[in-house]
Amino acid sequence: MQSALDTxxxxxxxxxxxxxxxxxxNGRPLVYFDNAATNQKPLPVIHALTQYYEGxxxxxxxxxxxxxxQATAAFEASxxxxxxxxxxxxxxxxxxxxxxxxxINLVAQSYGRHFLKEGDEIIISTxxxxxxxxxxxxLCEEKGCILKVIPVDDNGELLxxxxxxxxxxxxxxxxxxxxxxxxxxxxxxxxxxxxxxxVGAVVLIDGAQAxxxxxxxxxxxxxxxxxxxxxxxxxxxxxxxxxxxxxxxxAMPPYRGGGEMIKEVTFAKTTYADLPYKFEAGxxxxxxxxxxxxxxxxxxxxxxxxxxxxETDLLHYATEQLVELDGLRIIGQAKQKIGVISFVMEGIHxxxxxxxxxxxxxxxxxxxxxxxxxxxxxxxxxxxxxSFAVYNTRDEVDRLIQGLRRxxxxxx
Length: 412
Description:
412 residues, 17% strand, 7-stranded mixed beta sheet, Aspartate Aminotransferase, domain 1, alpha/beta, 17 strands
């Protein structure tokens, strides 16, 4: 049964692009609802990886032979593709990293260590992933900065009035998630950015969850930094992007030292390369960078708006059925959400739910989702999370509901 949504997407045809879905787990057809952790990869992306290794595997930028030039061209074509994807003004504003976590650490260790000082205040939110908490705590311990936190309400929405109260002339940096990986909440990041800029603060937005669901325009947002991961864009793992405004990146010192990020090295002094290369030390993750361009092209071929509409339909369809289950409570019911549903079931531990669903071939995520402070805010140890992608169907949602009924029958 395909979504009832009037959509141009042929979901069954799309599913054929994802060979991993055509398998059985514990004797049942796989239902993959762990997309917020990582989504599956279509054949064009898999082929892009193998084509690189089979056809033009070489180190980039340094060689003058044919394979090196081919690899370099493909690598830099991905940079231009990301620039267009984010609507960045300059290609030099696109820094390749090893993921969202690496990008946040780069900013904390380069910008933070260089520009922040004792007594400066950094603001994050209650719903941050640990990757957007721990680097700032480490920086605060080192520099004597003060960490402040935007609270959330019972629906899982940021309390913007409280955010405004935290802002002052001592606020020097704000780092906030665009979309919550645990709740699916879409945060009003444009408002957050504007209010931070009004007091002279610099802003980083964690776009790991937003990147495959929302249209992104870093110039319209006026974000100073924006970070994301390829593996949540139907691309490979181990590859990410840091966008930063050129003037800010120019002023930042390198994060790592080594080959590629230098102009000249002597034992007396080293001069650094221009953007973006001064932040890309060593041999990069070439194959995965090359393949992310293919992932972006795949999404563009389907249409990001159509993908989002399909996922929203699944979100509404699943929510309507889940709330009918006795003892089930959805955690996070923001007005603006992506296709993520976190829930708890009275009297049943989330890990038991995950194990029993896995026995039925249904993959969900259980635990605190690397958001322990957020779980503490709601007074729970963790949740069961179902998260949707373009290849999921209403039939699979029906199987989730049936599976949860079986959980209740077995455990209560």
